[in-house]
Amino acid sequence: MDALRPVGRTLLRDRAYESLREAIVRGDLAPGAPLKDADLAERLGLSRAPVRDALARLCDEGLVETKPQSYTRVTRPVSRIVRDAASVVRVMHELAARTGVPLLGPEGIRTMREANERFAAAVRDSDVEAALDADDALHQVLVVASGNHAAAATIARYTPLIRRVERRLFGDAGSCGSAELHARLIDACEAGDAEAAVRVTTEIWAALEQLADEATEVADVTGIPAPAAP
């Protein structure tokens, strides 16, 4: 399990959290998989304390669920939860576009274009992981430019709920988005047209909200039924 390689001794709670979150998002730890802190600690080369802290954080973020004296396990995607996460992430990216475009310089535009080139190449190669990484890098430019730490933290918290469903439902990188839409976003940013950038951002992220209606189809991919929303 590549995402669960032993980690260094600095910032152990954060490193454990990042490793476990990546393993869940990538599907190395599948929906419904039991999580035992002793086993995870051994695989990560850590003591149990930072692993327990990481699991508690992931529980708060909706990637792990626990019942005292019963179980701790990876959550199974639920359509309502994915839809809510996608809606929140969309609004935060719209805010980042509206406030970030006026503050975006030539270096930011160049970084976005380079990220879109990587995205397009990954789509051609049907490399889902590389496509999603490039997509994140492209949009992160506006998030950083906006200087809105609350928006950045919200995006970081809820994007993994969406990404793990994308990875499980999409068999090829062509489903990860459109380089043409990215190009339109970059052109709007370069022109300093914040409202046009917001409109394209809405178009890009609204499509991800449709994943919520497909989340129940994860059973077709994983063999594990997704529970009904309460």
UniProtKB/TrEMBL annotation:
InterPro entries registered for this protein in UniProt: GntR_C (IPR011711), TF_FadR/GntR_C (IPR008920), Tscrpt_reg_HTH_GntR (IPR000524), WH-like_DNA-bd_sf (IPR036388), WH_DNA-bd_sf (IPR036390)
PROSITE patterns: HTH_GNTR
Alphabetized SMART domains for the sequence: FCD, HTH_GNTR
UniProt domain HTH gntR-type: residue ranges: 10-77
Statement: the UniProt record of this protein carries the keyword Transcription: yes
UniProt KW keywords: DNA-binding, Transcription, Transcription regulation
Pfam families: FCD, GntR
Xref: PANTHER family: GLUCONATE OPERON TRANSCRIPTIONAL REPRESSOR, TRANSCRIPTIONAL REGULATOR, GNTR FAMILY
This protein's name: GntR family transcriptional regulator
Source organism of the structure: Streptomyces gulbargensis
